[in-house]
Structures are given as C-alpha cells and as structure tokens.
Design a protein that fits this description.
CATH topology: Methane Monooxygenase Hydroxylase, Chain G, domain 1
Structural class: mainly alpha
Number of helices: 16
CATH architecture: Up-down Bundle
Strand content: under 5%
Distance between the termini: 84 Å
Bound molecules: protoporphyrin IX containing FE
Oligomer: single chain
Number of strands: 4
Radius of gyration: 25 Å
Strand order of the largest sheet: 1-2
Number of domains: 1
Length: about 350
C-alpha cells in the first residue's frame, strides 16, 4: 500500500520546490552570521516583489517599495539585469522619546539639565558667553543633522515640495548660527585671553557633530573619526555617516526619480569614497537647469547650502583671527592660518562647475 496516492505527487513537488526557494533566499540573505535586513537587504536589491522595470515618466516619480527609494531603470552592472533600488539612507538618529505622563514647560524642555550645563572653568565673566554660544551651535548642529536626515529621505522620494521646504529651514539654521558669531565677536582678545588658559586642549576642532555634518555633505576623510576613542559614540556616528550615501548621492536619486539619466557608475559608486566631479553628470545638470524649473530650484537650494557652510567657515575664521591673531589654536593647529586653508572647498563641485555654462 503506497504511503500517498500518485495524484498527490505534483502537489508534493510544488511544496518542496516552494520550501527550497524560501530556504535558498534566506541563505543568500544570511551574511557573516547576520541575517540581512532593513537598508542592507535593500541595498543589495532584495524586494518582497520585483519592482517594475522602468522609472516613471519625467515628473511622475515611480517608487519601487515601501522604503520609497528611487528606482533605477535597468542596472547595467547587475548580471541578472534586474531593476534595483538606489542605496537607502537610514540614519541612526539619537532621538529619545519621553512618555512621562506629567509635563511642565521645564520638564518638557529638560531645562534642569540644559540650564545647569554651563560650567565655566574660571571666574571670568566672559567665559559664560563662550560656553553658551558653543552650546547653541551644537544644538543647531543637532537640528541640522535631523533636517539633513529628513532631506535625504525626501530626495529619495523625489518629493520636491518637501525637499525645498527642508532646504529653506536648513538655510535658516545656518543663517542663525552665522549671526551668533556677531555676539561672540564682542569679546576682545584680552577678554578671551583671561580664561583661554583654562580650556586646555579643548577646541571646536573636536566637534563631532560638525564632523558628522561634513560627512553627510560628502567629506570622506578617516582622520575625521580616527581622532575619537575607538568604541565611542562620536566615532561611531561620524564613521557611519562616512559609510552612508551623502546628501549629494540622495540628490542624484532625486534626479533619477524625475527621469534624468544619471550615470550608473555614480549611482552605484562606493559611498565610503569621495565623489569625484563628473563631466557626464554636469551634462545632466545642464539639462535639468534647461528643462525643469522645480528641479533647478532644488539645485539652487543645494548651492545655497554649500555657500552658507562656506560663509560660516569664513565668519568663524575671521572671528578667530580678530580674537587670537596669529596664535596657534587650543586644538593644536596653526589657528587662523589652518582655518583659512579650509575655506572655499565646495561640497558639491559639479553644481558650481556648471554655472559657467548656464
Ligand atoms: C572665541 C571664539 C573661538 C575661537 C578663538 C576659536 C578658535 C578656533 C581655532 C583656533 C580653531 C582651529 C583648530 C584649533 O587648533 O583649535 C577652531 C576650529 C573650529 N572651531 Fe572654533 N573658535 C571659536 C568659536 C567657535 C564656535 C562658537 C564654534 C561653534 C561650534 C566653533 C567651532 C569650531 C569648529 C567646528 C572648528 C573646526 C573647523 C575645521 O576643522 O574646519 N568655534 N576654532
């Protein structure tokens, strides 16, 4: 007597082949003892359902999956010629949500912590201003990183309205930190000298959030995180940002969603390396400026952003020059001379290059 009837054989075969498919897929996603999920799984082009093969017509973004990343038509680099997603940007933001039931103005804003966090190392009246202006900068840096994370998500979705709004806000934040330099500039060289000795080797040079901002905007230089202790949160955040797609990578995704033929080698570049200027991309940008007012406005917003970062560098460098002259910095650099050397290095060189041809 057979264990099962002959008519059940096809059903059994399809069950076995289904199970084998699931197992094989799971093994592919099993990588060095880690089951790939989230952005990494996504980066490698795994989808619950294969996405449609072509991007939508210009102006009608088509998205490939719930993460909402831009779809690239046919990846010529992929052997299977399957459509793939652009790298998905998932930012590990340190946002702590407070669910405490009773709220007051003070508890909501954690004012006990914030207003007791100014701890001068001297009795000099001026030191309080020095601390407060730095702390305010750091808070705005935090907000900028938060805005940039949102901006990268909106760029990936091709959402022009939100991209422009977010860019405007980021520009406002930068304007505000530049203005705060006016306040610090009221400090005379002798007032600063009165407490400078108490700063030891502390310097804005060590601002991890500033380094993270640079990394999000495209800086790829290991020295920026190697100065921090191995295993520290600061080092982790800067290093992670240097291994994620930059804001400009996300902008390229935005162009793809809007139907522009961004070179594939840029879309699938190794994001841990600096992006080199590309003549081919400059051709695409010229086309954007020529054809599409809204996308051109996004380009202009990015140029504004780049320019405002350079303005901050300039204002900070001038302030340093007027307060400490040619003295070296507490962080160990040559001071104003070092800061001068960091001026005028654009974050988005392609957007500057095309201006001469518009
Ligand atoms: C009296 C005011 C200030 C003085 C004299 C001053 C001085 C300096 C100097 C000399 C450097 C070069 C590195 C070093 O050797 O220390 C530097 C770098 C830096 N400072 Fe300031 N600074 C002042 C205020 C600020 C403020 C308010 C911020 C806001 C966070 C800031 C952020 C930075 C950053 C981010 C760098 C690194 C720049 C780079 O490497 O490109 N500084 N500062």
């Amino acid at each position: 007597m057979p264990f099962f009837s002959e008519s059940a054989v096809p059903t059994l075969i399809s069950i076995i082949s289904f199970l084998w498919g699931v197992t094989r897929r799971s093994l592919t996603l099993w990588n060095d003892g880690v089951f790939l999920n989230g952005p990494e799984r996504h980066r490698r082009g795994f989808h619950a359902k294969p996405p449609p093969a072509r991007p939508g017509p210009r102006g009608k973004p088509r998205r490939c999956c719930r993460a909402g990343t831009a779809l690239v038509s046919m990846c010529r680099t992929s052997r299977s010629h399957r459509p793939r997603c652009l790298p998905f940007v998932e930012v590990d933001e340190a946002v702590i949500v407070d669910h405490s039931p009773v709220l007051t103005y003070s508890s909501y804003l954690a004012l006990d912590e914030i207003l007791t966090a100014q701890r001068p190392h001297s009795d000099e009246h001026e030191e309080m201003l020095f601390i407060v202006v730095h702390q305010v900068h750091e808070l705005w840096f935090k907000q900028l990183l938060h805005e940039f994370a949102g901006l990268q998500r909106q760029l990936a979705l091709g959402d022009s309205a939100h991209v422009l709004h977010s860019l405007r806000r980021s520009l406002g934040i930068l304007k505000s930190v530049i203005t705060q330099i006016d306040v610090l500039e009221t400090m005379t060289p002798s007032q600063f000298t009165s407490f400078r000795g108490n700063l030891g080797t502390a310097s804005g040079f060590q601002s991890a959030q500033f380094r993270e901002i640079e990394a999000v905007l495209g800086r790829r230089d290991h020295r920026a995180f190697e100065r921090y202790l191995e295993g520290s949160g600061e080092r982790y955040r800067i290093e992670s940002a240097m291994n994620r797609p930059t804001l400009f990578d996300s902008f390229l995704g935005y162009l793809v969603v809007h139907g522009y033929p961004v070179p594939h080698d840029l879309l699938y570049r190794d994001v841990s390396l600096p992006m080199e200027p590309s003549v081919e991309l400059q051709g695409v940008l010229l086309q954007v400026y020529h054809d599409d007012d809204v996308a051109a406005e996004v380009c202009e917003g990015l140029v504004d952003l780049d320019q405002r970062i350079q303005e901050w560098r300039y204002r900070h460098g001038k302030m340093v020059e007027r307060i400490i002259g040619d003295k070296s910095g507490t962080g160990g650099s040559s001071g104003a001379a070092y800061l001068r050397a960091t001026l005028s290095t654009p974050m988005f060189p392609d957007l500057w290059t095309v201006r001469g041809r518009l």
